[in-house]
Specification:
Mean pLDDT: 77
Helix content: 55-70%
Distance between the termini: 83 Å
CATH architecture of one domain: Up-down Bundle
CATH class of one domain: Mainly Alpha
Keywords: Membrane, Thylakoid
Order of helices and strands: HHHHHHH
Low-confidence stretches: 63-71
Structural class: mainly alpha
CATH superfamily of one domain: Photosystem II Pbs27
CATH topology of one domain: Methane Monooxygenase Hydroxylase, Chain G, domain 1
Shape: elongated
Pfam families: PSII_Pbs27
Protein name: Photosystem II repair protein PSB27-H1, chloroplastic
Strand content: under 5%
Organism: Eucalyptus grandis (Flooded gum)
Subcellular location: Membrane; Thylakoid
Largest sheet: none
C-alpha cells in the first residue's frame, strides 16, 4: 500500500503554499506571486562554478605570475649569520658571575629567533652547510637556556659541540656554502 505523501508518476505535485512575509501589510494574490517569479530559470551552482573557474583561469593566464620575494640577498644572509655567530660565542664565553649574562641571553634569543624566522622558509638556504650548522648551534643554546635558565652555564661537552658547529658554520660561510 502506497503512502499518501509518496510521489509517483501517476500523481502530480501540488504547488507549495506561499509564505507570508512579516514586512508586507497585504497578502499577495496568486497573480502577483506569479508575476514576481522570474520567467527565466535560475542559474545552477554547476553553471556558476564553471563560469567562475573559467574566469579565474583566464585571469591567471593573462596576468603574469609574480614570484615570491626572497627574504634577503646572499650578502645580507652572510652578514646576519656572522652577527649571530659572534653573539653565540660572546654569550657562551661569559663568566657565570657576570651580572649581564641574563641580558646577553635575552639579546641572543631575540637575534636567533629573528634569524631563524627569516631564513627557515628559504628553500635555497636549507641545503647550505652554514645554515644547518648555525641552526643546530642556535637550537642547542636556546634549548639549554630555556630548560635551565639564563644564569646556568652551559656544560663543557655541550659548549665544545656548539663551538665546533659555530666554527664549521663560519668556515662554510667563508666558502659560500
Amino acid at each position: 500500500m502506497a503512502s499518501p505523501t509518496l510521489i509517483t508518476p501517476a500523481t502530480t505535485p501540488k504547488p507549495l503554499p506561499l509564505i507570508k512575509s512579516r514586512h508586507t501589510a497585504t497578502a499577495p494574490t496568486a497573480a502577483a506571486a506569479k508575476a514576481a517569479l522570474p520567467s527565466a530559470p535560475q542559474p545552477r551552482r554547476r553553471e556558476f562554478l564553471s563560469i567562475a573557474s573559467a574566469s579565474i583561469l583566464s585571469a591567471g593566464l593573462i596576468s603574469p605570475v609574480v614570484a615570491p620575494a626572497l627574504a634577503a640577498s646572499d650578502e645580507e644572509y652572510v652578514k646576519e649569520t656572522e652577527e649571530v655567530i659572534n653573539k653565540v660565542r660572546s654569550t657562551i664565553g661569559m663568566d657565570k658571575n657576570d651580572p649581564s649574562v641574563a641580558d646577553a641571553v635575552a639579546t641572543l634569543r631575540e637575534t636567533s629567533n629573528s634569524w631563524v624566522a627569516k631564513y627557515r622558509r628559504e628553500k635555497a638556504l636549507l641545503g647550505r652547510a652554514s645554515f644547518r650548522d648555525i641552526y643546530s648551534a642556535i637550537n642547542a643554546v636556546s634549548g639549554h637556556y630555556i630548560s635551565f635558565g639564563p644564569t646556568v652555564p652551559i656544560p663543557a661537552k655541550r659548549r665544545a659541540r656548539i663551538l665546533e658547529e659555530v666554527e664549521t658554520a663560519e668556515k662554510a660561510l667563508l666558502r659560500g656554502r
